[in-house]
Amino acid sequence: MTEHRSTPSPSPAPDRRHRRRGSRARRRRGGRRRPVLWAGLAAGVVLLFTGGLVLQERTEPSGGSAGAAEASGAAGGSAAAERSAPRTVVESQEAADEPRGEGEKEEEGEGREKEKEKAPDAGSIPSSGPGTFATASGGGERVGGSARTLTYVVQVEDGIGIPARDVATEVERVLADARGWAADGQVGFRRVSHGASDFRVRLATAGTVDDICGRYGLDTGGEVNCNVGQDVMVNLKRWLLATPYYADDVTSYRALIINHEVGHFLGHGHVGCPGPGRPAPVMMQQIKGLHGCRTNVWPYDGEGRLVTGPAVG
Description:
The protein is an alpha/beta fold. It is built from 7 helices and 7 strands; from the N terminus they run αααβββαββαββαα.
């Protein structure tokens, strides 16, 4: 700054008498002031450069003009690309997530609500029936082990409004499951519709179940299922309503009914919970409580190991 203020103002040219002496003086003065002038030029460049950086930093966030963007060069273009990229990614992610995640959750929620709406009221379920049965027609393929094959029929009490064929489909699915009783590689099952059979799966009203089970001295109290002789008796109320532990998964509870009562037919007795947090055995009376176990409806686990617990007298 000082060198600008000390720079002499322009003056008229000197006459010839003083030209040589003035020329020498100017050379001497010029020689002495050259470093100062260079320093001034350097300082000006630095100020201009610094001013440019400050201007650039202030204008980029606000977007700037097209002229400023061109003046900033490739660095400015890069910065603009970096600023716009994150916004594009976020918007794309939101666009991808919103339709799928929320939509699927809403559909699942609506499905569960509809399922609950379809669940019958306990008061609408008939408590007694005629005690006669319709047998599901046709037959199924043999499933399970080859040591022995047990044949069975599926029957539904007349007048309860459930087709025998529908019940037969569910029973076949349960007995054919890889985690079912056939997982031991010994016993196999095959559904038949006529002729002799080893056992019968019978869906009936609570009154009929009480009557048939009571003939063998069992008190089912209008609430539970039983196995007596050749009959696997399934209480209609449990088939439709399950229990509090399976209220949201009635289909799984039906598997538990079949596996528990067929297990009795195969000679398995009641067992207890093997330990807190472990799967409840199917031969455990889960309707009376889980006692620290977690719900489970299959005799074997996914690796072919029997799920059991301490014997209960």
